[in-house]
Amino acid sequence: MKTRGAVLNSMGAEPPYTASRPLSIDEVELQPPGRGEVLVRVRAAGLCHSDLSVINGDRPRPTPMLLGHEAAGEVEALGEGVDDLAPGDHVVLVFVPSCGHCAPCAEGRPALCVPGAVSNGAGTLLGGHRRLFRGGETINHHMGCSAFAERAVVSRHSIVKIDRAVPFEEAALFGCAVLTGVGAVVNTAKVPAGATVAVVGLGGVGLAAVIGAVAAGASRIVAVDLAEDKREFAAKLGATDVFDAANPKVVDAIRSATDGGVEFALEFAGSVRAMDLAYRITRRGGTTVTAGLPPPNATFALPQVNLVAEERTVKGSYIGTCVPSRDLPRFVALYRQGRLPVDRLLTHRLKLEEINEGFERLRKGEAVRQVVVF
User: How far apart are CA 246 and CA 323, in angstroms?
Assistant: First the structure.
């Protein structure tokens, strides 16, 4: 089967991407789904900083690679052994497939699936196969999804069936931004009603965390970012206080405004500086959560005596510590009740041919969530 998709041929292209055009729109050969796999007609795919970090080389991946990991679509065909889905079902793609058998999966932590991490790093589907080719050349899969294409073959363990009433453009955001941002609030931090929360870094995931904190019933939600428009948007979504991360006295200002700091500070900027800010605005006995993905060589030094004497907790959060098959339907239900306004995060709709312009916009911080609509 032939399909069109956005292929990254090599990492590290110089911006602006409107000129260097790191993603080429190519016709590729897509093999039919094998055992335990599903053919999905992609209807919408979101642009995420995790894609951008592969394009710029911060997160090395084997190339050539067909990018895209945040998407929704409908089932077209089923591989052997898949009997719990049917053609026409609406699904959301999940960027870490879970085998269900390794130690983390058995512990209810599918985001840490060991075979899933191995296959994602190798650029294959969960079963170790590659189903994409271009003129005899093998194309690697991105996070088991490769969703910047009209169609994708994915592992059954990379998709979750959803309510057909959710528009594809909004459903796509649940696969990464919502799982990661909302999940960090309710699963990793376990924010209780009435708690004080800070969100550092107001991209699509950070703003999803803001609406997640609102849904969780946080009494105070502090939003921190360098960009004034992102801070204003966070306030419209329910943040009670906004602060400019560029202010050299921002830590003192937040600690003063929150009587010594917040109970939960969540970092989504993917930088050591942002993580340091989040840690410093966390109160005694509080919890600092990081879901940002800095370059692999980035390190964060924290004062150990402070960690001990103040009984601090520092936690990492990957895919919001979610169990996608459990949490995606829950989050969709909250969205349909109007309690999780995911649709407000969608700022741009693109054609596949406009994807390089979209990533340049994302690189410059001029968008919240952009979606390629097929």
Answer: 36
pLDDT confidence band for 31 (50 / 70 / 90): very high
- Beta partners for residue 231, in sequence order: none
Task: Say whether pLDDT at 107 is over 90.
Answer: yes
State the chain's mean pLDDT as an integer. Answer: 97
Q: Are 53 and 293 in contact (CB under 8 A)?
A: yes
Q: State phi, psi for 27 to the nearest 5 degrees.
A: -90, 125
Q: What is the mean pLDDT of residues 294-317?
A: 92
Q: Using 50, 70 and 90 to split pLDDT, how confident is the model at 296?
A: confident
What is the per-residue burial (b if ≥16 Cβ within 10 Å, else e) of 324-355? beebbbebbebbeeeebebeebbebebebebb
Can you tell me the mean pLDDT for 184-211? Answer: 98
What is the CATH class of 2-176+321-373? alpha beta
How much is the average pLDDT of 13-21?
Answer: 98
Closest CA to 196 of 268, 263, 266, 285: 263
pLDDT at 196 over 90: yes
Q: How far is CA 373 from the centre of its chain?
A: 18
* Domain covering 190-316 in this structure, CATH number: 3.40.50.720
Q: Report d(CA 196, CA 187) in Å as an integer.
A: 16
Domain coordinates in residue numbering, the chain: 2-176+321-373, 190-316
Sheet holding 262-267, edge to edge: 241-244, 220-225, 196-200, 262-267, 282-290, 313-316
